[in-house]
Each structure stands twice: as C-alpha cells, then as structure tokens.
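Course assignment 3, question 2. Fill in each field.
Student: A.L.
Task: Predict the tertiary structure for the chain below.
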Amino acid sequence: MTTTEECVPGAGAFPAGFVWGVATSAYQIEGAVDADGRGPSIWDVFSRVPGAVAAGESGDPACDHYRRWPEDVELLAGLGVGAYRLSVAWPRVFPDGGGRVERRGLDFYRRLIDGLRERDIMPFVTLYHWDLPQALEDRGGWRVRDTAERFADYAATVHEALDGVPYWTTLNEPYCSSITGYAEGRHAPGAREGHGALASAHHLLVGHGLACARLRENARQGEQVGVTLNMSPGVPASPSAEDAAAARRMDLMVNRQFTEPLLGGAYPADMAEVYGEISDFSFRRDGDLELISAPLDFLGVNYYYPIHAAAAPYVQPDPALRSAYDIGVRTVMPDGPGTSGLGWRIEPRGLWDTLTGLAARFSGLPPVFVTENGYGDYGDLDDTGRIAYLREHLAATGAAIAEGVEVRGYFCWSLLDNFEWARGYAARFGLVHVDYATQARTPKASYHWYRDVITGSSGGSA
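Answer field:
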C-alpha cells in the first residue's frame, strides 16, 4: 500500500461526489422495544438468557432514539455528513414476521427519513441488521427457506412505504447472522450448529436475491440496491503450510462463502472439503445461484481488522456434533503495538487489501462503499485513539481509490455510543458520547475531527 500525501484525508484523496456518512442500527440505538406494537426480536429473547450479554443488558432502552430521533438528526446535521446509514427493525413492521403490518412502525421511519431529507442528508436504508422477529425463529429462523420468502415480503412492504431512499441494502453482515448466531452461538439466537448454520447462510443469500428482485420490480427512478458484507482478511500466523491452510479456511468461512456466490455466481470449491462432513448442502436448489448473483448496484464493505489464523485441532472430533464455526483454526494476536481500546488489532493495511483484492478478483465489481469502520474502547476520555484509527483507515481508503478501486463513500461506525450486542453497553464506538442514565449526548473530539475532514475534503459531502 502506498501512503502518499495524496492519500491523507483533506488533501485531495477523495473524488468529487464522495459520500461522507455515519452509521447506526435499529436494535442498537432505538430502544422502545415494546412501543407502538413492536414484536419481540431474537435479540430481545437472547438478551434474557443468563450470561449471553455482558452484565445481563439488552437493547432496551439503548439510546432511546425512537423518541429522541430529532436530536440525533441535529447531531448528524452538525457533523456535516451527506448520508446516514440506518436500519429498519423488522419486528416494528411485522411484529409476527409477516401477516399484519404495524403502520405505527412504518410511520416512525417515514418521520425519520423526512427529517433527514429536510437536512439534506441522504438515507441509506438497511433492511436487515440482525433483529429477526422471534416468531420466525420459532418456526426455524434462517435455517428454513420460508424465512427468506418472508424477508422478501417485508422488504417489498418497507420499500413501498418509504419514499425518498436512494440506496437500499438488503442484509448487513450475513456472516454474523449465520455463523456467529447459528454456529458460534455468541450472537442471537445462540445456536451451535453445523448443517443448520450453513443453511442459514445460504437462506440469507436467497433472501437477499428475492428481496432484490422485489425491490427492482417497483423501483423508483435512481434507486440502487446492494448488500453489505463484513470482511476480514485471513492472515497465516506463521509461514508454515498448516497455518496457510488454516488462514484459507478462515477466509472461506468469513469471506468467500458470501463473496463468491454474490459476485461470482458459484460457491467456492473448498466448501465441500471444509464442510462436507457436517452438511450435504441439501438446502441448495436449482436456480438459487442465479438468484443470489443478480448484479448489484453497489457493494457495502464493513472492515475492522484482519484475522491472524493458526492451525488447531477440532474442538469437537465427531463431525456429527461439530458446528460450522469449528474448522480447525484458532485466532492469534501477533506481537507488536497497535490494538484498540477493546484489544482489537489495528491494521489499516487490511482495509486496503480487502478493497484492492475485491477489485482484482471480480472484474465486474460494482461500486463499493465502506459502510462500517470504527474504533471501540471502554469510554476512554482521551479520544486520540479513535482519531488516529479513522485517519489511518481513511488513508487506506484513499490509497485504494488511487489504485483504481471505485470506492464511492465512507461511513464511520458509529454516530452514537450504543448497545454493542454481546458486549452490552461497556464498549463504545460513538463519535458522540451517550450517558445512558440521562440519555445526554456529548460530541467527542473525534466528532469534531471527522466534521473537519468532511468540510475540508475536495469531494465534500454528497
């Protein structure tokens, strides 16, 4: 990666029209989990399982964004962003996953989108950010194809109701929804399965394809449809052949089982080698790959860190009992400085590798948005770590652009400190500090720094 003066934020790295944004998700900020007819999600139920979430916390009240959204829109306006990436909560629209539509939920998102557009802030709407209605999980969740079909119905309903949204994202991070939720058990619904987890990954992609088709049937002029993947390069922990093979298995699990069908129209050949003992892949149907690989208008990439992988024994020797997360790999932390307040490795080179690697592998790669990138800590008063992280990763983004990758925008995670899933409220990623006892919002130094980057950029906000 070259990091020249041209790649420093504010020094002309980014083209005219580059989209500067910030991101959140519904369950992490909205709160009001039983307001206006909202049904329970898998995260409401999972959060009540003893030990599932740090300190026994849940997404209620989160940041009370459901009631305080006008204040948060003002924070967005003060930040100077041209776009805001938000998600719609499926249980607010269909409390039972399908059937009866809860109009009060749709009205909330109409008000929010109207408020954004009044401030010339472009809404990027994500339809699924992990909050599956519990009623659908009770009927099999993403393990079963019916959930993909219900997702397409939900997507069409939201699309019809919400005008003025130029960018629609079907899924956020299907790896986390499937592998972290159905194989590792660290996220909702907390399952540790083999075949079921792989089925959930496939059905998420089928749901994406079905939703894309429904949105495009009734697309308004200028609307674009895409999907967001979290991507972490697999890096061998040593020069050994065993660790190189482990890193490739990690790359398959995290990255390639999603990128290859979406962008290449086929599952990786080593899927059978890695997972053939735990699944017969009978959930795949003729025509699925054509549906999944329908051309995208854009690809969202979420990046935080690479994964350093070393070979290890299977946790469960019996393949019949093995989860899809158990692939003979352990993650390691390499020597040297460079970790976030949460202990995550800071390697901006990994973002450059991800962006340039996608462009090299897929000749028809659609335009890319970096849809999440951010720094977590435990509430450090000194915000210099977050500023340094953002500066370095924006430089990596600029370097990828300089090498010809069509990156059209960057969304910082996150606008607000919020409910960070299994970590609860202790981990903080926000540009704005939230006092959860009072719900007071206080912009951090990184908020002002990012505002200066946006206003100083040659591209400005979109």
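Instructor remarks: The CA atoms of residues 371 and 411 lie 5 Å apart. Residues 241-264 form the longest helix (24 residues).
Grade: pending
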